Amino acid sequence: MTEQNEENDMQEVSRLRFDCPHCGSYMKVRTSKTHLPEYRELYLHCTNEFKCGYRCKAALSISETLAPSYRPNLAVNIKLSPWLKQKVGLENQGQIRLIDEPKKEAKR
Ligand SMILES: [Zn+2]
Question: How remote is the CA of residue 19 from the centroid of ligand 1, in Å?
Fold first, then answer.
């Protein structure tokens, strides 16, 4: 896979889309509230407003850490994925190094 393809795939994944469970139309996020950094409440409205009109509240929460942050917030405690737990175990045994310094861009 080329670098360009990877970039395009990431853009596709970043578009979070909800379809109305009743009519299948696209739902818009009207407002959202944040109480915790790892949790967000979303208020969704069906875009088929006059023929359907469904509205609902949804919750989005970060459930697992897949890769640790280079700038961790110590107030945030999100459980590690089983894969990452295994890697942390290997790092603690000195077998691997999990976090390297962020790569600096090559100077031209
Ligand atoms: Zn609908």
Answer: 8
- In the chain, % of residues over pLDDT 70: 76
Residue 38 CB burial class (10 angstroms; 0-12, 13-18, ≥19): middle
50 and 22 housed in the same domain:
yes
- Asked whether residue 107 is assigned to any structural domain, the reply reads no
CB atoms within 5 A of ion ligand 1 belong to 20, 22-23, 25, 46, 48, 52, 54
Distance 108 CA to ligand 1 centre (A): 53
pLDDT of residue 94 exceeding 70, the answer is yes
Q: Where are the alpha helices (DSSP H) in the chain?
A: 3-14, 82-92
pLDDT the model gives residue 2: 46
